[in-house]
Amino acid sequence: MGDTLEESIRRHLAEKVDVRELSHLEQLETLSDPARSPKEWQLATAYLGLVPSDVDPELPGDTDWHPVDDLPALAFDHESIVPAGRERLRAKLSYTNLGFALAPAEFTISELRDLYAAALGHDVSATNLQRVLLRREVLEPTGRQRASGPTGGRPGSLFRFRTPELEITDQFAVLRPPGPARLPVS
Amino acid sequence: MGDTLEESIRRHLAEKVDVRELSHLEQLETLSDPARSPKEWQLATAYLGLVPSDVDPELPGDTDWHPVDDLPALAFDHESIVPAGRERLRAKLSYTNLGFALAPAEFTISELRDLYAAALGHDVSATNLQRVLLRREVLEPTGRQRASGPTGGRPGSLFRFRTPELEITDQFAVLRPPGPARLPVS
DNA sequence: TCAAAAGTGTTTATAATACACCCATGG
DNA sequence: CCATGGGTGTATTATAAACACTTTTGA
Question: Is the CB of A152 under 7 A from strand C?
Answer without folding.
Answer: yes
